Amino acid sequence: MYLLDTNVWLERLLDRERADEVGRFLQETPAEAWRLTDFSLHSVGVILSRQQRPEAFRQFVTDLFAEGAVDIVRLCPAGLVEVAEAQVQLRLDFDDAYQYIAVETHGLTLVSFDSDFERAEHGRVTPAQALRERDSSSHENDDTAPR
User: Fold this and answer.
1) CATH numeric code, 2-135
2) Is the N or C terminus of the chain more exposed, i.e. has fewer CB atoms within 10 Å?
C-alpha cells in the first residue's frame, strides 16, 4: 500500500514537470493500493482554492472517493505528539512529519518527490521508483521469469 504525498497529487493536478510520471503510476497501480492523509486532502484543497480552481478540487474528491477506492489515513491525537517528535528528530516540517508518522503508523510505503524523507528510516520512493520496485518484485515471484 502506498501513501501518496501531497506533492505527488499536486504534480499531476497542476500539470508540473513530473506529471506524466505520476500519471503512469496512477494508471499502473490499482487505486485500492493508494492512501491519502486527511492533511494532504486539505492541503490540496487549500492550494487549489488559492489558485481559484474549486472545480479541480471537486473533481479530485469525486475521482478518489466517490468513483474511486482511495482510503483516507488519519492520525489520532497521540499520533500528533509523534508528529511533533518527528519534527525535532528528523528535522521535518509539520506536513512532512505528519506524512512520516502516518506511514509508520499504518505500515505504508511513502511515494513522494520530497528528498527530506531520505533522513527518515523508511525513506520514500518516487512514483517511477515504486513502479520499478513493483515490476522487479513481480518478476522475482514469477516462475516463468528468466533466471
Assistant:
1) 3.40.50.1010
2) C
